[in-house]
Amino acid sequence: MNAFSFACTGCGKCCNSPPTMSLPELFCHRGRFIGCLAIGRVPRRRIGDRVRAWGHETVLDAADIAAFDSIAHTLLYRAGDTFSIMSQGYDYPSLARCPALAEDGRCAIHLSGKPLTCEVVPLDPLVPDQLQHLVLAGRNQSASYIGANCIQEGERTDATLMIAQGEIKDANARDALARRRRELEREREVWGHAVFESLRKDLFESPAALARIAPGGFLTISIVPALLAVAGMSAHCRQLCLNYIDSQLALIDRSIAQALLRRRLEDRPVTQELRGFAQAYYRAKALLATPLPAMGAESGPPSSLSNIEAYLSGADH
Ligand code: SF4
Ligand code: SF4
Predict the structure, then answer these.
(1) Are the CB atoms for 299 and 308 separated by under 8 Å?
(2) What is the CA radius of gyration of the chain?
(3) What are the pLDDT digits (tens) for 66-107?
(4) Number of folded domains in the chain?
(5) Is the pLDDT of residue 296 over 80?
């Protein structure tokens, strides 16, 4: 019947890693989340493909493919295959928790800047609405949700009907999904395109480099390309980036120091990666010591620059 109900008790079970976050959200929580870029390869879909998730199966038709194409057109990047480029939090996977998850199992930033992506849970903004039941069917059986019983098949009296007949029935969920998609569109416009172009030659046009990203998989890299994309827009943007870099360097230092105390073998590659992030921040800091030539927004009207500054400062959220 493809209907699912949802009731979040705020148990924190799914808060087992840092979430994807917009650049302004990372700026806002710069002392809590280490930022990075996650580059994902989005599996290509064709008419007639069967998509299965735990007892649910859909054969994709022309309308499904048109909906996937529309999402790709507005939120993703084409380079042969389709790719996502998103900013997100980064931490040691061995901790298996989001840095905002408090000791009592609650979200410490629930009332002060909880990332929009957490409001969208358990939906996926990159999946067309009519196929979100497959997302819920998959998550219902995934380790992050098993035992929480927050996703249930069918219409329930003790939960909100989330999805039925290929539609998102819950108005709050529909609104959160729409806001997250608008946010992703804005991210693409403000820094995503510039990052995509800056990585085009060394990643997106290099079969050897791209082989590191399996279909459905991700590559994490430093967030510096996104910072450089916005820092050149104005003195204000540059200062936001410099403030962010200083906070991140201090946070990375603290994070590595704690990892060294834990003495876990599996933390070593992550420590190496964090040291790489720190090096990239130092290089960016040196580059930003003098103003970069204006780019991106300078050709637009002053209002577009002030809009971007307001966006990055979190003022238009
Ligand atoms: S696992 Fe389910 S109930 Fe627990 S916080 Fe996540 S969405 Fe809410
Ligand atoms: S920010 Fe809050 S709701 Fe989101 S994953 Fe972290 S603890 Fe969970």
Answers:
(1) no
(2) 20
(3) 999 999 999 999 998 999 999 999 999 999 999 999 999 999
(4) 1
(5) no
pLDDT at 316: 53
Residue of higher predicted confidence among 144 and 98: 98
Q: Is 11 touching ligand 1 by the criterion CB < 6 Å? A: yes
**Going by DSSP bridges, is the β-strand pair 34-42/218-221 parallel, antiparallel, or unpaired?**
antiparallel
Instruction: For residue 121, give the ligand 1 atom closest to its CA.
Output: 7
What's the confidence (pLDDT) of residue 16? 94
Instruction: Provide mean pLDDT across the span 17-29.
Output: 97
Nearest CA to ligand 2 atom 2: 107
Domain around 283: 4-312
Q: Is the CB of 10 under 6 A from ligand 1?
A: yes
Measure the CA dihedral 68/71/75/76, to 10°. 20
- 263 is a domain residue: yes
Q: Considering every ligand atom, which ligand is closest to the CA of 15?
A: 2
pLDDT of amino acid 70: 97
What local confidence, expressed as pLDDT, does residue 44 receive?
87
Q: Is 317 part of a structural domain of the chain?
A: no
Contact between 136 and 122 under an 8 Å Cβ cutoff? The reply is yes
Q: For residue 54, what pLDDT is reported?
A: 82
> Is the CB of 116 inside a 6 Å radius of any atom of ligand 2?
no
Distances (CA, A) of 189 to 19, 112, 193, 308: 21, 26, 6, 10
- Cβ of 221 closer than 6 Å to ligand 1, yes or no, is no
Ligand 2 close to Cβ of residue 99 (< 6 A): no
Residue 200 lies in a domain: yes
The C-alpha atoms of residue 73 and residue 82 are separated, in whole angstroms, by 10
82 domain-assigned: yes
Backbone φ and ψ of 289, nearest 5°:
-60, -30
Mean pLDDT taken over the chain: 94
Would the CB of 225 count as within 6 Å of ligand 2? no
In the chain, what is the greatest distance between 2 CA atoms, to the nearest angstrom? 61
